[in-house]
Amino acid sequence: MLHxxxxxxxxxxxxxxxxxxxxxxxxAFDGRGRNLSDSAVASKLKRAMEDHxxxxxxxxxxxxxxxxxxxxxxxxxxxxxxxxxDGREPSMYTDIRPDSSxxxxxxxxxxxxxxxxxxxxxxxxxxxxxxxxxxxxxEPRTRAQDQLFAMKAGQVQKIASTEDFWWYYIAxxxxxxxxxxxxxxxxxxxYAKLGLLFQASNKxxx
Length: 206
Hints:
By secondary structure, the protein is mainly α. The protein folds into 2 domains: about 10-135, no CATH class; about 145-200, no CATH class. The chain is built from 12 helices and 2 strands; from the N terminus they run αααααββααααααα. Strands 1-2 form a two-stranded antiparallel sheet. β1 and β2 form a beta hairpin. α1 (about 10-30) crosses α3 (about 50-60), α3 (about 50-60) packs antiparallel against α5 (about 70-85) and α8 (about 145-150) crosses α11. The model has no long low-confidence stretch (mean pLDDT about 85).
């Protein structure tokens, strides 16, 4: 109705809001496979469900899971996610443009086609998520997967960007332990948290 009557900015914003609610539903469904009695896991899930960016990303999850050719679908989906995250606030709030002293007005920012495309996108995200929830069961997570989920993003990024961790992961895979979550958690507990390095600790004595 908003789009039909020319209120494109409001139509766009509410379509983004509905996409976020779809993402929140996916997070809630997916969270049923986790150990929610663990306060760290429950808190992390709650924060995810309050984060605009994570909700938008999660709204596309069921769609991507159902897509046969992931490679061709992922990049367009990522581009859409970025545009939605960038366009959310300008479509709702009158503000000063960051690159000048001029005023940014939602009605001027949002084009008719952008509003229509966002409404259609919200419909598609909802449809795929409804189908996913109706046909699938929440994937049970291991203790290590829950621990990895509950870790701070900065901690995981720091470990993943450390060469020493990848040498550790290679050693784990060679030993038959291929679970990535288990590797991150055990490396964090045994080495990173204590300020130690796997390679230094496993050098053969001369």
